[in-house]
Amino acid sequence: MTTVNDHKPVGHGxxxxxxxxxxxxxxxxxxxxxxxxxxxxxAILRSPVAHARIVSIDTSAAEAHPKxxxxxxxxxxxxxGLAWMPTLSNDVQAVLATDKxxxxxxxxxxxxxxxxxxxxxxxxxxxxxYDMLTPVVxxxxxxxxxxxxxxxxxxxxxxxxxxxxETGDEAATEAVFARADxxxxxxxxxxxxxxxxxxxxxxxxxxxxxxxxxxxxxTTQAPHAHRxxxxxxxxLPEHKIRVISPDIGGGFGNKVPIYPGYVCAIVASLVIxxxxxxxEDRSENLVSTGFARDYIMRGEIAATREGRILGIRTNVxxxxxxxxxxxxxxxxxxxxxxxxxxxxxxxxxxxxxTAVYTNKAPGGVAYAxxxxxxxxxxxxxxxxxxxxxxxxxxxxxxxxxxxxxPEQFPYTTKTGWVYDSGDYEPTLREAVRIAGxxxxxxxxxxxxxxxxxxxxxxxxxxxAVGAGPRKDMDILGLGMADGCELRVHPTGKAVVRLSVxxxxxxxxxxxxxxxAEEIGIPPDDIDxxxxxxxxxxxxxxxxxxxxxxxSGAAAAVVARKVRDKARIIASGMLEVSVADLEWTKxxxxxxxxxxxSVTIQEIALRAHGAGDLPEGIEGGxxxxxxxxxxxxxxxxxxxxxxxxxxxxxxxxxVRRFVAVDDCGTRINPMIIEGQVHGGLTDGVGMAxxxxxxxxxxxxxxxxxxxxxxxxxxxxxxxxETGYTVTPSPHHPIGAKGVGESATVGSxxxxxxxxxxxxxxxxVRHADMPLTPSRVWDAMNGRAEPSF
Amino acid sequence: MRVTxxxxxxxxxxxxxxxxxxxxxxxxxxxxxxxxxxxDTSNCGTCVxxxxxxxxxxxxxxxxxxxxxxxxxxEGLATDGELDPVQRGFMECHGLQCGFCTxxxxxxxxALLDRNPDPSEDEVREAISGQICRCTGYAxxxxxxxWAAEHEAAEKAAACPARPECGAASDGAEEGVR
Amino acid sequence: MQVPAPFEYERAxxxxxxxxLLDRLGESARLVAGGHSLLPMMKLRLTDLxxxxxxxxLHGELGxxxxxxxxxxxxxxxxxxxxxxxxxxxxxxxxxxxxxxVIADPVVRNRGTLGGSLCQADPSEDLSAVCGALDAVCVVRxxxxxxxxxxxxxxxxxxxxxxxxxxxxxxxRFPVRxxxxxxxxxVERRAGDWAVASAAAAVWLDGGTxxxxxxxxxxxxxxxxxxxGITEALSGQRPSExxxxxxxxxxxxxxxxATDSRGSAEYKRHLAEELTRRTLRRAVxxxxxx
Lengths: 787, 178, 290
Known about the structure:
The complex is a heterotrimer. By secondary structure, chain A is an alpha+beta fold. Helices cover 27% and strands 25% of the residues of chain A. Mean pLDDT of chain A is 96; it is low at 1-7.
């Protein structure tokens, strides 16, 4: 048998993943795999209704269950001051409902029992009396006169308004719209969807009452931030809290927020003094944890007859659910939606947004959205296609005429974002080349003549990832910087400790490669430690494609710091001045005399050895940094999707998908390709089948995998990927984030393709998800989906 | 009730509740946590293991129903410490990211190759169509299974040791040291 | 995850044993075969059964596809995968293989059975439409012996069958008549999902003239396992597009779909017509995928 790592690089390049040997043996260790002696099991009773006052809760029968250790209600938590917790958006959210339930699936009580089955049994024994209230289900009427006030827990709250937000120049935008040849307006809904990682959320809390120490294994993408928040909520000193995020079965933003279940598990362990496990089931995950999107957008675009885009304007109604719990930087209540001007050089732009409470689950920023860039890119790429439709212009040509030109970078958009680097036209051309775009258009023309429905959809996106500069960005006051620590051991092996955490992105490989590239130690000799607050430096975690832009930069910088020290030690070993040393990956040699050299491993031994070191140099070979990014990084990409629509049944088949991504310097192309593939699948899912919808009573209609559909291997094509490389000028190795690019860029490509296929029916827009029934509606001229 | 079955070649007998799901039996009673669960409705396939040689969704089988049967989990996929070609294929072709669906995918892939040693891409996609992966977009899983098929064929034929590259597509040119 | 409430487990070792248990334990007992409908309902605590009778051991006794005289007999415990892979069945009724290809997913098909599918009486279930189109007869056995129930009478309504106390479905019989052709079509939102609508068509021809024709529909309301009036409209006619369209309209008129997240009632009614037309066309053209 061949060894699996025989084509590994020292540094960047395709390298097999270091984490895989444990996963393929079934030896990954996820939260639900944690078994502790004496561990108890927690289950949560949830509200069956969307809006109701709690009249009474009778827990006596559940308490009488022989295997039940505790039954806790909101009233009991309130006595400890723990019934409410802060959200990541400075709102509050009920841990357990005390007064009212505000969405179907809200936490009402919990049971702790000796085993999971008994805990679930006891939930059936709790009797809750509800006084039904009218639910607010439709965001469009949430602010209407007489609408029930959902958040009457907030003092003086008399409506369902969360915030207003605007960006850009309203007057300047009005001016360009007034003089434009063409103005196109379209109502575009990005429906509520759910990240639905395969592993649901859960935690094991283990409180040691003697040491006063809490260890929490939990499904978190941000262990350090969570620890700080637990310290604030539970009143435990932060140094007595250890949060461990072990192997995580996918995150996609679902595991950024703090959920009531985590707090319940902590409270239960604190009170009972034994380890307590809580793992939600799939329905609980879908109905109660962080959803994504739910933006109702009106897009307007102004252009000249020749296809020069002058301005873009949008008005957005944002449905935030019952609590404003979206995970976004403090100054950015609409996330990074401000990049809605996309990849185009335009004269003016303006956006206005109103966010409302509804009787639905809280959340909003999740599902690989890069803080709402999914919505922004969908809006601009859909409205640009609507413009192409009106101008009867090819969508590639229209985009090409308006792309920001390479000499304009760094480019400041009309909403104030500074795009760091980009060379867009070659990326678009590469996608066109791989797709064989001209031939596809010919094939389409032939098919149309025969009555067949084929569509070609194009999207071009610019992402803004790697939050972020601490002058602008924080979450609950915590700056969005990341730490990294590197220790080289005496034998030249190393350990690198990250503040970010992997949910499958392959950090144990990528970060070893980043460090290997900088100090020449083979990646297999570098251990990557992450996901444990006791053993890693502080940082804000992995989401928003920020690991490589922020923590990856930290890893490169810390490695360079170690290398700088190694250089001084080498100068002592070789008895030459530092200036006379040359670095080739893994060794310093004397300039002009390459035979005289020392390897990084020899230097490491010397650094820890007994001999003298150059003056002012301490022993050891290690360093720590906290990296504060200068700017976000702005990856981009061009996508082309080809679909066939059955004219009789309206079923959509994605035949081909071409994705050309530019994420700057590419560390491990295999991992990058994997990230892109996954995001493309998300895009097909959202465009064609995924939706969390509600009936008029506020009942969630997407509460299981029978109803919330995710793509299988049969709905997606064999992805065709390509790349261009435009390094980031401010990132130490020129890398940009890529984890969410495809999720952001692919939905408009799929929708544009379907709408293109329906051109013979005069269709200019249709809302996601484009299920057969909705496509049939569009073909039959129904603007509003009939369900 | 008492249940006896063979798991990864070893006979086990346990006292259980009759309602215990097979997935919980192997995870919680036997400590074989390589088999995961991801839904309650047998839609996601992360819980796939073998019962009497066939992949089944163990969240929808009672442990009692497995009494007297032979169960094989991901922990029983390697033989004598030697990884199965399917396991190697998943590593070689980046067929996994978070690793959560991986055991179920590999168990199904192994069963497919046992019945059809040279499946087409479409046949692989069909075989895994009852299992959801949120990370990979499936293409690399298909490549992984094809890699296993090709290597198994080559190894069975005791042919040349040179290994066909898995279809690394557009990134092939970037392989190796920069 | 969700887990079932407690119950007593019994494993039946023969059909007679199973019937004896059913008879003795009464209404608090349920049979479980593949379990893919029943166990999720038990996890949701939507059932109140006290005894679960596992009949998977009966696969030896009831897992078969046999041609006997002018009938194909299929045992109730025959699993979906066996139905899919049966060349005998595909040779006589291509509709079976076409349907099985799109029922649930391959792993679920390893467990699910013909009997389990029919006894669930879910109006969205595909095999019921197939059985309706093929004029199937259900063999029901109980404490007082065996009786035959035509497929059109086997479902009494949604989730309700003609099975009486202590009875179980043991076999399904399909009459084989010369000149038979058949096909199946399904529209689903995603592989493995329940049908938005599906249709099974069977046509019998004699010298280019239709002698008998049946269409079964799924997911467009209850009582559609065999659409009334199809054979009357088609018999004695030579196949044509006009004829398929006429049958499609009959199908669309005969169903009563509801709007839900799978699609609007109007769309489903359209599919009843479209899929009826397609299955008839493909059946007659002999392009059923055997």
